[in-house]
Amino acid sequence: MTGAPFVGSLRAGPLQTIADVAGVTVGHCTLDAGPVQTGVTVVRPHGGDAYRNKVPAAASVINGFGKSIGLVQVEELGVLETPIALTNTFGVGTVANAQARAAIEANPQIGRDWPTVNPLVFECNDGYLNDIQALAIEEAHYRRALAACATGFERGSVGAGRGMSCFELKGGIGSASRVAQLGGRSFSAGALVLANFGRLPMLTVAGARIGQALAVSDKAKPEQGSIIMIVATDAPLDSRQLRRLSMRAAAGLARTGSVYGHGSGDIALAFTTAYTVPHDADFVDVPPLLSDTRLDPLFLAAADSVEQAIIDALYSAVSVTGRDGRRRLSLNDMQAGKP
């Protein structure tokens, strides 16, 4: 996060990304070819088989202008069955097919002796920079992003974030982490965002309305775009508590200047790595769960890490030129006065 201010009062983990939650890895596949500026990003909750060893999860739809796949079953069952995939709006179906194929290859019983798999794909519309009508995303791009998953990963104009815009600047992938103290123990919370939302005059960084100084005009444009916010933790929570945690992502989003406009799809998902739910178990071995009355430090960690992750996306991004010569300047280039 070169030049990016640090927000909040909690300390970050050593990596300062979602990978500070043990077991979580991230990978990208980036398409950078003239008018095609897009890609796929994958978040793996652990290194094993996500179908056989599911992790507890829950989502909050803050504003539902989106075309994601898999949220209904996550809400009903409270677990993830695949890695989390991010891509552009028209790539959702292709990536979901790739997730299903990968799960079937690892578990041939899926859809026959076993239930079908629930792909989980989130999207934002990168059509300002990317020729989204080219339908450039292929199943192989998901596989490449999955194979690239690691604790060290790029942020900014990469993967699913390649063609994204944020506050009329270059947006994309951002990540951050915080450490919370609960009940005499330390727990990590990390966030990864796909930032593609906001109007420049509203941009707020560490409480400063810097967008007003950068904006050429403050004409009333509708807020369009979306943001996907993934929150991971190693704290022992159930799916009900994880839904409460996911909702706190909205606090971090609001601090950056978003009002969740009509045309903005704002979705948060939270999961825990504290335990898994085996696919074929009769009983689930659940550790003692945190009391709801002790969750405030974790809520703060989620809000701070989402806010920091959005700032990270802006400061990590590089300027990109895409379809029809359209260009999005990075925040760094805008502040430096570069064309």
Automatic annotation (TrEMBL):
A Pfam cross-reference name: Peptidase_S58
Listed GO MF terms: aminopeptidase activity
Family annotation (Gene3D superfamilies): L-amino peptidase D-ALA esterase/amidase (3.60.70.12)
Alphabetized InterPro entries for the sequence: ArgJ-like_dom_sf, Peptidase_S58_DmpA
Keywords attached to this entry: Aminopeptidase, Hydrolase, Protease
Keyword Transcription in annotation: no
Similarity comment: Belongs to the peptidase S58 family.
PANTHER family the UniProt entry points to: BLR5678 PROTEIN (PTHR36512:SF3), D-AMINOPEPTIDASE (PTHR36512)
Protein name, as recorded: D-aminopeptidase
Organism: Caballeronia glathei
